[in-house]
Amino acid sequence: MTKRINLWSGPRNISTATMYAFAQRADTCVYDEPLYAHYLSKTAADEYHPGAEEILADMENDGNKVIQMMQGTHDLPIAFFKQMTHHLVDLNWSFMDEMTNLILTRDPVDMLPSYVQQVAMPTMMDVGYAAHLELIQYLQKMDQEIIVLDAKKVLEDPQKVFTQLCEKIEIPFDVAMLNWPAGPRPEDGVWAKYWYKNVHQSTGFGKYRKKTEPFPERLKPLLAQCQPIYNQLQKWVL
């Protein structure tokens, strides 16, 4: 029986590195943001996301067909889906009921200045914090255990966090998850050239580095919305 894992992340949250970690497992196949084109087709994000036309041309645009793929057969015992929480637009969420769902978050003080390098004027919908809270409320109704990973804690001690995570989701920890070859992976989405430069230069999880640059003034109103939600998420962090 296939074990299906959704990693529900916001942008710039080490989600690609986490996908690369799972890709090192011999028992796991990985999928990079399968609902991205669906999201672009249902929102105005196609007007400002880099490479939107190429993404829409390359991927399945119908989110319901993507869900059917996720629920279908896979080549290995574990199927890992790197997802963005804000991609859940106009979809029935019940497909998550029989899957393992993880949430990956990051302090918006660190995330927002990184994200604006690609999207100049992000909104709450773009960054996914409110969507994380909505997802948690849904999973609680389904009596699923809430598991939240925090990017900072992962970077501070990836072996500890992934050992705990694997125990929680009932798969064996594999030390191979801590390192990977530099460069792109065949599973990378076509948007990799816009977003994955740093992870392609990596061979494992880098050390956490606190940002030293002044926080951009224009992002402070969005930060004020995101920070309380991020703080709420901490009660579920591994």
Note down, in words, how this protein is organized.
It is a single chain. The chain has helices at residues 15-23, 36-42, 52-58, 63-71, 108-115, 124-127, 129-141, 151-156, 158-168, 192-195, 197-200, 220-233; strands at residues 3-9, 28-32, 78-84, 100-105, 148-150. It has 238 residues and is of the alpha/beta class. It has a five-stranded parallel beta sheet with strand order 2-3-1-4-5, with helices on both faces. Helix content is 40%, strand content 12%. α2 (36-42) crosses α3 (52-58) and α7 runs parallel beside α12 (220-233).
What is the element layout, followed by pairings?
Layout: E1 3-9, H1 15-23, E2 28-32, H2 36-42, H3 52-58, H4 63-71, E3 78-84, E4 100-105, H5 108-115, H6 124-127, H7 129-141, E5 148-150, H8 151-156, H9 158-168, H10 192-195, H11 197-200, H12 220-233
Parallel strand pairs: 1-3, 1-4, 2-3, 4-5
Helix pairs in contact: 2-3, 7-12
* Helix-strand pattern: EHEHHHEEHHHEHHHHH
Query: Major sheet, described briefly?
Result: 5 strands, parallel
Q: Can you identify the CATH class?
A: Alpha Beta
Second CATH tier, the architecture: 3-Layer(aba) Sandwich
The CATH topology: Rossmann fold
- What's the number of extended β-strand segments? 5
- Judged by helices, strands and strand pairing, the structural class is alpha/beta
Total domains, how many? 1
Q: Taking all residues together, what is the mean pLDDT?
A: 95
| Oligomeric status | single chain
Query: Could you name the CATH homologous superfamily?
Result: P-loop containing nucleotide triphosphate hydrolases
Residues in β-strands, percent: 5-15%
What order do the strands of the largest sheet run in, or round the barrel if closed?
A: 2-3-1-4-5
Q: Total number of helical segments?
A: 12
Q: How far apart are the first and last residues' alpha carbons, in Å?
A: 27 Å
Q: Looking at the structure, what is the overall shape?
A: globular
